[in-house]
Amino acid sequence: MMISTLERTVLCKAFFTREDVLQIARDLLGKVLVTNFNRKITSGVIVETEAYAGVTDKASHAYSCRNTPRTAVMFGEGGVAYVYLCYGIHSLFNVVTNISGVPHAVLIRGIKPIDGIPVMLSRSGKNKRDENFGNGPGKVSKILGIHYSHTGKSLLKKDVNDQINVWLEDRGIKIPSGSIISTPRIGVDYAGEDARLPYRFFYRQ
């Protein structure tokens, strides 16, 4: 996988407000998730995602129009973070998509670390990377410094003076469509028949 350092475009609102959450989940593969906390920049190429299709998707927190204090951010306009606490331990980072009132979201399940690897190792308590470094949504948030308190934060950068902590970039990484694999999502057995939907995406590296 070749990573271009010359082409760095922050993803704009139009990327996130599209209707097709499955297409967005596919399109996020190869994009770069970046954080800047305490002037420490860390990033990773997105290599695995899961789509959640809102009120009709039994695996979604917003299924059947469940609009609670936790899920309210999902009902807003796309381009913000939805971060929730899982098992009281792990912060899981999602990108809210679609227009206001349509609670679609994409979970970022895996990244390939690029920038700030020493910082990420420190956050994870490791001395060196292994093959699972950045593999799994809890690990993604941990090594990038994302916390559930960041839910609702904008992912959009309007100009160079904007101060945002989390954003996504297009660095010109091309993922051949034939190398993208779709499977059922992980850990959503409670969703019945919707647990079998092929809404998880990753690619052969």
Features of the shown structure:
globular; disordered N terminus; 205 residues; 13% helix; 4 helices; nine-stranded antiparallel beta sheet; alpha+beta; 9 strands; 3-methyladenine DNA Glycosylase, Chain A
Please report the total strand number as a whole number.
9
Q: How much of the residues is beta strand, in percent?
A: 25-35%
CATH topology heading: 3-methyladenine DNA Glycosylase, Chain A
End-to-end gap: 7 Å
Shape, per Cα inertia axes: globular
Would you kindly provide a written description of the structure presented here, covering whatever features stand out?
With 205 residues, this protein is an alpha+beta fold. The protein has one domain: 3-methyladenine DNA Glycosylase, Chain A, CATH 3.10.300. It has 4 helices and 9 strands; from the N terminus they run E-H-H-E-E-E-E-E-H-H-E-E-E. Strands 1, 2, 3, 4, 5, 6, 7, 8 and 9 form a 9-stranded antiparallel β-sheet that branches. Strand 5 (90-97) and strand 6 form a beta hairpin. Helix 3 (117-124) packs across helix 4 (137-144). The longest helix is centred in the middle third of the chain and has 8 residues, at 117-124. The chain starts with 8 loop residues before the first strand and ends with a strand.
